[in-house]
């Protein structure tokens, strides 16, 4: 132990010349206030110098709370006294005991004040079972620094400074009236020192303290020596240190030797690991943390209270704090500030506010109270007065609460927000409706409504959906906005309207013109042209010789009828083409028609459904609104007079404001009802209110349109220079940060009807590029049909004869019956070839008709045999008919062909009458046994019957 003088030279000489020459391996640094006074600067210099030399220090520094760790304390120091962390933890235990959740930290510029603030913050952050809030952290250099405490909600202060500094700080606090019965000051060991009080200290102060008397100092010297002895023993007994001595002879503060002891850090680790059994049985062992602080500490809880034997105040021990116990704090009765018998609340005392409102859903809703109890149910809000002040004189309040003309229940977004403010700030309030029922605008140079109440200081605060604007802000104070809003327009959808041209609207004009002018005309002319040119189709040279035969009815106008019938899928009789190419082209057109009709009918549904129409305004600057007299017919719209919307329109849209006076409504509900009933075309008001009403509309007929105008916000309004603005602003920002405002918005601003503007727009017509695929299909079909026409000509001219000789009747017959006839019936082909060769019939059309005649004759004979069998089965004797042979038929056909020329063969064989010469024998009356079939007819009759049957079969296959 040594006594340090204030001189740095003396400290340096003592340490470098006396200690080092004596081979010092550790320094025991012991001091207290009573014997040595305060020597913070000397202690800091000494410990820093010892750390530089690498010599471990075992200290019991009663003034350790006045040391700056980062700059003064040695990294090789063991502290036997309770650390600053112990003191801050004990102070927070007192706050937790009395449920003081919020506090402020007050320090001077004493060395180590940053360490104290940091220790408090770390322990607050580490606590998960109790939530603390540090309101302020103030460094006092002059009395005016305490004004921050006056303007805050702080009622509990943690003071860290010296005793002399505490006297000045508490004197200034007393002048600022923050030392009364509602304020608690909790101080550290450095303020209490030797427990000598000062008259400036207020009664009820609390503090943490440990014994710093000379007796306690002597006991700590013995503890320090034991720690050193055990450390040396541990060091020497470790086999790692064999041959290594604890020697500092070579250590020097000058350049003559080593500047730092290399073994100092190794030796310090052995000292830090020492564990001494406590002298007292109820205390834990003396152990140290990795930083060299005492692991377990005990602190006394002190209370400044009136002395029993004198009139002064004394520090009295009222409890103890033990860091090693689960219940660390043990405390008895306390003398509270102001000699109060109850502890302070730790929060600002409750204050009362008169709050004026004006109802507007969903911010404030009015509903009657319970008529029996006169109270509001849990889901009905809080009781609020709707009667004027002069109506409340000489009435029974109990009966007034049950009377709806005096009191009603207020609920809504603003009421829930007010409840949160009251809970956080601790105030009571009275809700009163504004007497004139106006929002607050300039009327004949004077303010009315809510603003009038504030300007004349008849109320403390206005809480409702009051919009912030420049005129109002010039006379009252607004808080931070709690909701963004603007001026919006609400309209109603008109249902039951179908456009008279809805059937034309699925396609635009260009698409309809392309279908009508190009697609239909192109398909018609292509089908007709392919039928004209096809060798198996229509022949302009064909002339029917028999007027009784059914002509081949095909023409351009009939082709138009076919195209239109296929396009609209009409169930009408049409004349189909015979040519393969023209039939293929007809199928391509049918595919085009399927695609066209599918797209048309799908998009037509959107236009034929009952349309919801509404006025699509772009905003307040829409010319139909801003210049209503310039448009005919005029639009009927209005707002609420003497509101923010009304004053804004009168300022920036004078013509509109003059026009809409005749359509204004007294309330938002009246305005919305007028829009729904058709009395108004539009209603203009606050955007958030209108959005809420749109979502609450059961029929979902309301819709807000256009952009919001004059964007602003809703705010709490106070009288000019109100002291409440700051505290409400702070809480409002906290509510916004933690999501409370958003949760309230979602709860109150949502409804069952959520119409989006995009859901009510009419469908857009299909553009040309959306319908282009159908036209590409039609063009591809035309090109493919032209290619088939070319292949058909090549087939009939070059390939038909060769294929007929080689084909065995395979799969071609399954593709087309008419084409298969020319390929699969080999005998008929050979015979027709011989006939052509004999009769010199070189026309391929004539060749085809010759084959048809032979085939028809064969079918007639087969049918005749079947009929004879049927007659025999019925006991009827068939008539004796002589059927002409094939040669006779062919000869007759050839003769006719020779007489008429090459085209005559086609004419003759193209009609059933060409086989008339084949009939021989007399005609007999037909027995009507088999229905309407005339069995007694000629061969010509049988031919006609079989021919019609074959044509029907061919039409079915094709």
Structural class by SSE content: alpha/beta
DSSP strand content? 5-15%
Shape: elongated
Helix content: 40-55%
Strand order of the largest sheet: 5-4-6-7-8-9-10-11
**Uncertain parts:** 1-5, 540-550, 756-762, 809-827, 893-958
Radius of gyration: 56 Å
Count every helix, treating DSSP H or I runs of 4 or more residues as helices. 32
Alpha-carbon distance between the termini? 126 Å
The largest β sheet comes out as:
8 strands, mixed
DSSP, total strands: 29
Q: Report mean pLDDT, rounded to a whole number.
A: 79
What does this structure look like?
Strand 6, helix 7 and strand 7 form a beta-alpha-beta unit. Helix 9 packs across helix 10. By secondary structure, the protein is an alpha/beta fold. Helices cover 42% and strands 14% of the residues. The N terminus and C terminus are likely disordered. The radius of gyration is 56 Å and the shape is elongated.
Give a quick precis of the structure.
With about 950 residues, the protein is an alpha/beta fold. The chain is built from 32 helices and 29 strands. Helices cover about 40% and strands about 15% of the residues.
Question: What tags apply to this protein structure?
Answer:
single chain, 958 residues, eight-stranded mixed β-sheet, five-stranded mixed β-sheet, 14% strand, elongated
Topology:
Layout (H helix, E strand, L loop, with lengths): L7 H12 L7 E5 L1 H4 L3 H14 L3 E5 L15 E3 L4 H14 L4 E6 L5 H14 L6 E7 L7 H4 L5 E5 L2 H13 L8 E4 L1 H4 L13 E4 L4 H24 L26 H9 L25 E9 L6 E10 L6 E3 L19 E7 L7 E3 L14 E4 L11 H6 L4 E5 L1 H13 L1 E7 L8 E2 L2 E2 L1 H7 L5 E2 L7 H4 L3 E2 L4 E10 L1 E4 L11 H25 L22 H12 L12 H29 L2 E3 L9 H4 L10 E2 L5 H9 L1 H7 L7 H10 L4 E5 H10 L5 E13 L2 E2 L6 H13 L2 H9 L23 H35 L5 H4 L1 H8 L1 H14 L4 H30 L8 E2 L2 H15 L1 H8 L9 E2 L18 H19 L1
Parallel strand pairs: 1-2, 2-3, 4-5, 4-6, 6-7, 7-8, 12-16, 12-19, 24-25
Antiparallel strand pairs: 8-9, 9-10, 10-11, 13-15, 14-15, 17-18, 19-27, 20-27, 21-25, 21-26, 22-23, 28-29
């Amino acid at each position: 132990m040594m006594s340090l003088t204030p001189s740095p030279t003396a400290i340096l000489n003592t340490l470098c010349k006396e200690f080092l020459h004596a081979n010092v391996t550790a320094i025991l640094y012991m001091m207290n206030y009573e014997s040595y006074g305060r020597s913070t600067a000397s202690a800091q210099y000494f410990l820093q110098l010892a750390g530089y030399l690498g010599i471990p220090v075992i200290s019991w520094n009663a003034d350790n709370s006045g040391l700056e760790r980062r700059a003064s304390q040695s990294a090789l120091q063991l502290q036997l006294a309770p650390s600053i962390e112990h003191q801050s933890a004990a102070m927070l235990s007192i706050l937790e005991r009395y449920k003081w959740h919020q506090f402020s930290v007050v320090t001077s510029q004493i060395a180590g004040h940053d360490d104290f603030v940091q220790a408090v913050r770390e322990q607050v952050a580490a606590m998960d079972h109790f939530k603390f809030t540090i309101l302020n952290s103030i460094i006092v250099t002059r009395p005016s620094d305490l004004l921050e405490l006056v303007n805050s909600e702080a009622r509990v202060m943690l003071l860290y400074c010296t005793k002399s500094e505490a006297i000045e700080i508490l004197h200034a606090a007393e002048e600022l009236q923050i030392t009364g019965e509602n304020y608690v000051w909790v101080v550290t060991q450095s303020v209490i020192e030797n427990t000598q009080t000062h008259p400036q200290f207020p009664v009820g102060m609390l503090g943490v303290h440990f014994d710093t008397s000379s007796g306690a100092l002597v006991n700590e010297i013995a503890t320090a020596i034991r720690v050193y002895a055990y450390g040396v023993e541990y060091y020497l007994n470790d086999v790692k240190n064999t041959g290594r001595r604890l020697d500092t002879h070579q250590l020097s503060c000058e350049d003559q030797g080593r500047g730092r002891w290399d073994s100092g850090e190794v030796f310090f680790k052995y000292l830090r690991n020492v564990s001494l059994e406590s002298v007292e049985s109820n205390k834990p062992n003396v152990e140290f943390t990795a930083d060299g602080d005492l692991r377990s500490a005990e602190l006394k809880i002190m209370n400044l209270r009136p002395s029993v034997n004198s009139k002064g105040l004394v520090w009295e021990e009222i409890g103890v704090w033990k860091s090693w116990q689960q219940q660390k704090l043990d405390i008895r009765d306390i003398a509270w500030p102001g000699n109060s018998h109850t502890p302070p609340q730790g929060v600002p005392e409750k204050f009362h506010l008169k709050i004026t409102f004006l109802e507007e859903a969903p911010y404030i809703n009015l509903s009657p109270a319970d008529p029996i109890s006169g109270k509001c149910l849990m889901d009905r809000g809080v009781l609020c007065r709707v009667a004027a002040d002069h109506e409340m004189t000489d009435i029974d309040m109990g009966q007034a609460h049950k009377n709806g003309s005096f009191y009603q229940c207020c609920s809504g977004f603003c009421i829930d927000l007010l409840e949160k403010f009251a809970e956080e700030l601790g105030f009571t309030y009275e809700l009163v409706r504004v007497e004139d029922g106006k929002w607050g605008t300039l009327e004949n140079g004077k303010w009315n409504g809510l603003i009038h109440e504030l300007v004349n200081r008849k109320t403390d605060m206005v809480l409702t959906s009051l919009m912030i604007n420049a005129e109002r802000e010039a006379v009252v104070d607004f808080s931070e906005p709690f909701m963004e809003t603007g001026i919006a327009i609400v309209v109603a959808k008109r249902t039951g309207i179908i456009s008279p041209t809805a059937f034309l609207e699925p396609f635009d004009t260009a698409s309809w013109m392309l279908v009508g002018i190009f697609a239909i005309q192109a398909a018609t002319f292509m089908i007709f042209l392919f039928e004209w040119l096809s060798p198996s189709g229509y022949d302009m040279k064909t002339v029917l010789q028999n007027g009784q035969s059914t002509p081949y009815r095909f023409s351009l106008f009939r082709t138009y009828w076919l195209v239109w019938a296929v396009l609209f899928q009409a169930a009408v009789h049409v004349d189909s083409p015979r040519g393969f190419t023209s039939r293929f082209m007809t199928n391509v057109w049918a595919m085009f028609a399927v695609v066209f009709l599918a797209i048309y009918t799908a998009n037509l549904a959107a236009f034929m459904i009952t349309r919801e129409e509404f006025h699509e305004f772009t905003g307040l600057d829409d010319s139909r609104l801003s210049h209503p007299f310039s448009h005919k017919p005029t639009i009927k719209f209005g707002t609420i007079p003497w509101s923010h919307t009304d004053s804004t329109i009168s300022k920036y849209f004078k013509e509109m404001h003059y026009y809409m006076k005749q359509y204004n409504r007294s309330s938002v509900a009246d305005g919305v009802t007028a829009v729904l009933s058709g009395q108004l075309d539009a209603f203009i008001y606050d955007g958030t209110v209108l959005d809420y009403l749109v979502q609450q509309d059961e029929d979902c007929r309301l819709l807000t349109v256009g952009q919001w105008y004059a964007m602003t916000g809703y705010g709490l309004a106070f009288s000019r220079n109100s002291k409440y603005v700051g505290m409400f602003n702070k809480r409002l920002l906290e509510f916004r940060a933690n999501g409370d405002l958003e949760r309230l918005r979602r709860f109150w601003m949502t409804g069952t009807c959520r119409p989006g503007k995009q859901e009510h727009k009419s469908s857009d017509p299909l553009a040309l590029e959306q319908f282009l695929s159908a036209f590409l299909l039609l063009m591809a079909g035309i090109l493919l049909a032209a290619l088939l026409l070319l292949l058909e000509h090549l087939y009939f001219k070059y390939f038909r004869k060769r294929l007929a000789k080689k084909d065995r009747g395979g799969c071609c017959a399954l593709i087309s019956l008419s084409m298969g006839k020319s390929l699969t019936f080999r005998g008929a082909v050979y015979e027709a070839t011989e006939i052509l060769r004999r009769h010199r019939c070189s026309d391929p059309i004539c060749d085809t008709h010759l084959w048809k005649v032979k085939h028809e004759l064969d079918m007639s004979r087969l049918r005749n045999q079947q009929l004879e069998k049927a007659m025999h089965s019925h006991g009827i004797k068939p008539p004796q008919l002589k059927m002409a042979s094939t040669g006779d038929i062919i000869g007759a056909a050839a003769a006719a062909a020779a007489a008429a020329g090459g085209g005559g063969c086609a004419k003759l064989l193209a009609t059933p009458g060409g086989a008339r010469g084949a009939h021989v024998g007399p005609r007999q009356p037909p027995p009507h046994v088999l229905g309407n079939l005339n069995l007694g007819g000629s061969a010509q009759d049988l031919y006609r019957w079989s021919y019609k049957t074959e044509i029907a079969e061919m039409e079915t296959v094709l």
